[in-house]
Amino acid sequence: MSADAGHFIRSWVITCALIAAIIAAAAAAVDPYLLFNMPRVKGFNDKKPSVETQERLMKAYEVIRAAPNGLILGTSRVALGLDTAHASWPARARPVYNLGVAGADPLTSYRYLQHVLAHRDLTVVVLGLDFEYFLVGKKRDLSAPLAFESYLTVDRDGRPDPNRRWYHLRDLAEATLSLEALGDSIATVAASARGETLDMSPSGNLSEAGFRRETEELGSAPLFAQRNLYNMRTYRGRTFAQNSAGQADAPALADLRAIVELCRARGIQLELFAQPMHADLLETLDLLGAWPAYESWKRELVEIGRSDARGGGRTVRVWDFGGYDQFSTEGLPAGADRRVHLRWFWEPSHYSKALGNIVLTRIFGGPDTSYGVVLTAETIEPRLAAIRERRKAYRESHPDDVSRMRAIYDSASR
Hints:
The chain has 14 helices and six strands.
């Protein structure tokens, strides 16, 4: 090799290394995934739009730094709807971190709870429950590791993960040297410069800006129609599984029991609640023939709470906010102004922080809003009967909405 060729190769390697180092330093400074705990500078990196694709990674790291005493678990519904700063939270639960993540079934919530408890004790956990994650559709290998589990400190038995150090190095490398990280860093700076965008607060809350923008682009009625069609296709063909003895046998129930047992063992106050749904989604369940399963699911939640009490542990309250009420039956906005949206719901599944605040006030002993019921062996059947009566009244008073949902159902069937 000639001296000139050797000099060129050395110069090329050094230049590539410097470029890589500069890109890595810039990505670390922007910190799109919250791995480096860089200060949020307004207009530079204060918005974190990568939460849309990297939420599970981001929250696995951020929740440990937040050192919470209270924890919110569940899906994007709680991430969007429950405010960690709301005044109803008891002092012993503060600071509160919102560990709700999109698509989180009870196993996901259980694994993140294990992750947090490996680092610190908690006093209060609030878990929002979504009926669809207790339905059985396509089978999956329950023993196979899930992608997000490499972000967590412990394995499913609660033991330290021996590979965690290498996973951590991998996370840091991918957050600084990958093309995806470069693109997300640019998107972070651009979003911060623009201001309002999809974002995650330091306490884990998701911004409502994403739904606000989507509502303004589509309009509330088209957005509801789009999501109603999606829900009908998602729920169709899924069942609330039963074993040979006729008992509920959904894998998610076992995962929920594991959460209850873990909280009982650690002396944690656990509040479970069936999440609010807009009447459109309740009508969807009935149109698909899933209403009996929905009621059976609530009965199973009661049994899980009772079994905990029989075991001598702290009482687990099971709240029901899923029914026909003054919030869920809110009508779609009239008129062509797309900036107008519902007060209580963004779309049939996701409720607003305004409604989430009422849920938290009810759970933590605020003024009685006559909203939500604690499900017990004594209250479950009257509650289910009351919802059926309110459903009947809703259908009589909202014939246009009933017809609208029937039309969407017929479209989905075709």
